[in-house]
Amino acid sequence: MFCKNCGKEIDDKAAVCVHCGVAVTNETSSRTNTLAIVGFVLSFLVPIAGLVCSILARKKCRESGEGGEGLACAGIIISSVELGLEAVSVLLFGFAFVPMFLLAGSAAV
Ligand SMILES: [Zn+2]
After folding, report:
1. Which DSSP category does 65 fall into?
2. Are residues 19 and 36 in the same domain?
3. 8 A C-beta contact, residue 40 and residue 71
């Protein structure tokens, strides 16, 4: 696990951090990664930012053993779906308007 105070890797069973001397509790595993929460919220508001945050959060959760990996996965899925929907709507928009522009162009000439 990693020390909450200095962030350095320490023994899982250590009671005190060997790097900074701060008492270590095992609550890191029950704590939810903040970035996972941020990524989850952002996935609804700004999908691309939510996707990036969620990917980083999932990586961090795996490294530090913090909770929130499920939340990060949900953020990745939600933002991916939203990005997909946005891409589809952009394509539909393009397919609907390009022929109109072509028609307008040929009519003008
Ligand atoms: Zn430490």
Report:
1. -
2. no
3. yes
The closest alpha carbon to 49, from 3, 7, 82, 2, belongs to 82
CA–centroid distance, residue 87 to ligand 1 (Å): 45
Q: Ligand 1 center to residue 52 CA distance, Å?
A: 28
State the pTM of this model. 0.60
Residues in the chain: 109
How far is the centre of ligand 1, averaged over its atoms, from the C-alpha of 22 (Å)?
Answer: 6
Expressed in angstroms and rounded, the spacing between residue 32 Cα and the centre of ligand 1 is 19
Both 7 and 24 in a single domain? yes
Distance 9 CA to ligand 1 centre (A): 8
Q: How far apart are CA 43 and CA 71, in angstroms?
A: 11
Averaged over successive runs of 10 residues, the pLDDT of the chain (109 residues) comes to: 87 87 69 93 95 96 90 97 94 84 76
- Residue 90 shares a structural domain with residue 67: yes
